[in-house]
Amino acid sequence: MTEFTPWLSLLGGSLIGFAAVLLMAFHGRIAGMTGILSALIPPLSSDWGWRAAFIVGAIGAPALIVGLTGYTIPFESPTPAPWLIVGGLIAGAGAYFGSGCTSGHGVCGMARVSPRSIVATLTFMASTAITVFVIRHVIGGL
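^ YeeE/YedE family protein, sequence as received from the core. Prediction below:
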């Protein structure tokens, strides 16, 4: 069962949007995690500093909240680890061939009313819905 957390979700989404706006305002860049992270893999891009800071903040902020408050969201997955690895590789291939990830297209591209990002986001969402339907109702799995 998934716990519905509307206030925490609203706060988290607002912080993601705020970070995207700040990155665009101060660096003129899209807050797409795949693009930010890929430029940190050698050879490093010339603007690696802000990219590293963004990734450190994305990982460090939740860790800081847990450390300061002790609050965590319980998470467990009934999906076997090999399936998660394959799913991650498929998502990575999709981000590569789709020229961006859900954060770049879904958050920033949709906000800019980019037709390419709208199509990409609709594709992400449709693929997700089909996958969940097939796994839960056709295969009868998780």
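The chain has a mean pLDDT of 87.
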